Amino acid sequence: MGLPPTLIAEVADKFMAIASNQAARRADIKSAYDYIVVGSGASGSVVASRLAENSDKTVLLPEAGGNDLKPGVLITETWFFNQGGEFDWNFGAERSPSVNNRSIVQAMGRALGGGTSINGMVWARGHRNDFNGWASETGGVNWGYDHILDIYRRIEDWHGAPDAERRGSNGKVFVQPAPNPSAIAPAFLKAAGRLGIPTFEDQNGVMQEGAGGAAITNVRIRDGRRLNIPSDYLYPVMDRPNLTVLTGAYANPLALPTVLSVASNSSGKANCILSGRQSRSYFLRVFRHRSC
Ligand SMILES: Cc1cc2nc3c(=O)[nH]c(=O)nc-3n(C[C@H](O)[C@H](O)[C@H](O)COP(=O)(O)OP(=O)(O)OC[C@H]3O[C@@H](n4cnc5c(N)ncnc54)[C@H](O)[C@@H]3O)c2cc1C
Question: Which residue, judged by its Cα, is nearest atom 41 of ligand 1?
Fold first, then answer.
């Protein structure tokens, strides 16, 4: 891998600590947690990780899908084979006459990392006008581009040409310009330029503030491997005793007053997740199968 031996030892130690901590957590499922975050996709991974930073609070993260440390997730070149496979919910839209009565595929990730474990790995930020449009529609200034740009700068670990105004370099989210793009990509860009479409070095820089244009994508790939959001946010805290990550655990919708769901976790043991409502707040309880 070309990594220094000390770094390899550090990474190995971290994974051992995660494995033994999560095995202990799974063997000791509590009847209640301070927070239950359902689904470990892009948003769930971040929220659970931030909540678990408070060691006084317990956090449960049930994820319907399985482990993400698998070749199908990690190998970048074959990412599109995941659609319709074991890491996909395999949803399809209603058949519609407007598409010749076909059911159009609606891929959605079902694994630790959710969509970030099967997606195209492109780091695509929104355009200034979109954010400012949402701010004006909602009256919420925090939707505005300036505020969002601050967040992007804070979370990014950008490895392309420096742009201190728009790109961050001290965050958790590693992003780089696509390494070794196919020869078709620069040729495509050149053709766009010839047609009068402005071309840019960086997809997420000044291009997202102007009239538009074309650029080769930024990607979430490091040393040839996919980076999903758990790799940035969840794995760093999965050795904490207050965080339980339960794969293979499907939580039924919270809106129903007493929903019972039985799901197997990755070690094959079944857990039940109950949800209900007490006065104004919802609760979700997790029980071992036999005690449900
Ligand atoms: C094929 C594909 C390619 C894409 N390409 C890109 C790209 O290149 N760049 C980009 O920016 N975006 C891309 N996206 C979109 C991006 O991945 C999603 O926008 C993002 O993952 C959404 O995050 P989320 O947290 O809302 O949901 P998700 O990441 O989908 O996470 C939801 C999680 O919740 C779990 N879950 C759902 N219901 C339950 C339940 N009842 N109980 C327990 N767990 C549950 C799911 O299994 C899943 O892990 C792509 C998506 C797909 C499917």
Answer: 251
Tell me, in angstroms, the distance from the centre of ligand 1 to residue 97's CA: 28
What is d(CA 120, CA 107) in angstroms, rounded to the nearest whole number?
Answer: 12
Atom of ligand 1 nearest to the CA of 65: 47
Say whether 192 sits in a helix, a strand or coil.
helix
For residue 5, what are the contacts with CB-CB under 8 A and spacing of at least 6?
none
Domain with CATH 1.10.1220.110 in the chain: 122-219
Ligand 1, CB within 6 Å, residue ranges? 38-44, 62-65, 83, 107-110, 114-116, 118-122, 124, 250-251
Q: How far is the CA of 50 from the centre of ligand 1 (A)?
A: 19
Q: Which pTM value belongs to this model?
A: 0.87
| CA of residue 94 to ligand 1 center, whole Å | 20
CATH fold for domain 122-219:
Arc Repressor Mutant (1.10.1220)
Cα(265) to centroid(ligand 1), Å: 20
Q: Which residues of the chain have pLDDT under 50?
A: 255-266, 268-271, 276-283, 287-292
Q: How do strand 173-177 and strand 156-158 relate by DSSP bridges? A: parallel
How far is it, in rounded angstroms, from Cα 32 to Cα 36? 9
Q: What does the pLDDT look like over 167-203, one tens digit per residue?
A: 999 999 999 999 999 999 999 999 999 999 999 999 9
Taking CB atoms within 8 Å and a gap of at least 24, the contacts of 131-136 are: none
